[in-house]
Amino acid sequence: MNRILKFSFHTLSALVLVALVSLAKAQTPPQDSIFIIDQPNYELSPHTGLTRKHWEDAALYLLEGAFSHIENIDDPMLFPDHPGAARPVRDPVSVTAKLEGLSRTLFGASVLLKQNPELQINGIKLSDYYRHHLVELTNLKKSSTYIPPRAKDGGASHNLVEFGAVAISLFVAPEVLWNPLRKAQKDALAATMISYGDGPTVPSNFLTSMFSASLNPRAMRSTKRC
């Protein structure tokens, strides 16, 4: 468990750094849109001055930006397109793109929800939002978010990477994200994640995701958390 928490924290740190660098490169950003490192501690963190509290504040900062695009619990985690600064967005947006937004923001949300399960942003309770969308991934009646299990002869899939990220977040805050789900919901989600984790991969970060997506749901179902 400690290794999972450390891995999630390091991954979150990398995501926050990327976001902060992107902000720094903006030509004329409004002053109130910039994340400020308040009282850096260079004794504890010589290179950046960042403490765990700073990372938590940065995660909240990023989530506040993300949820500024969410009006209700049914809205997927999608952001406005910035031509030239992001990958082209398909129309209609693929379910994998929605899964990507869900899984990447859940990295930060899971850490904060571990500490405060009642956390709300933009009038939306984050625990309800993420549980709702995790369940919708296996909802056959919701074609805009449904992700079918990988076919037995299916090849490597981007879904593997995102489900690997989801698996790590589930381990970070299972009491908020996993335990409240009904058994049928857990079984459906685990089966879909494992189908990709047990599939083929490529020599990149897909490999780490394969282990997370395959082993973590199995572990979750085999413990008292189920």
Structural features, described:
By secondary structure, the chain is mostly helical. Helices cover 54% and strands 2% of the residues. The chain is built from 8 helices and 2 strands. A two-stranded antiparallel ribbon has the order 1-2.
Structural features:
8 helices, 2% strand, mainly alpha, two-stranded antiparallel sheet, 54% helix, 226 residues
**Could you say which structural class the secondary elements and strand pairing correspond to?**
mainly alpha
Distance separating the two termini = 16 Å
Summed up, the helix count is 8
For the sheet with most strands, the description reads: 2 strands, antiparallel
Give the count of structural domains: 1
Rg measurement, Å:
18 Å
Mean pLDDT: 80
Q: Percent helix among the residues?
A: 40-55%
Task: Note poorly predicted spans.
Answer: 18-29
Query: Strand fraction band?
Result: under 5%
Helix-strand pattern, N to C? HHHEEHHHHH
Order of strands across the main sheet: 1-2
Shape designation: globular
The total count of strands amounts to 2
Brief overview:
With 226 residues, the protein is mainly alpha-helical. It has eight helices and two strands.
List the helices and strands and how they pair.
Blueprint: H1 2-25, H2 52-67, H3 95-115, E1 120-121, E2 124-125, H4 126-136, H5 158-172, H6 174-177, H7 183-197, H8 206-222
Antiparallel strand pairs: 1-2
Helix pairs in contact: 1-2, 1-3, 1-5, 2-3, 3-4, 3-5, 5-8, 7-8
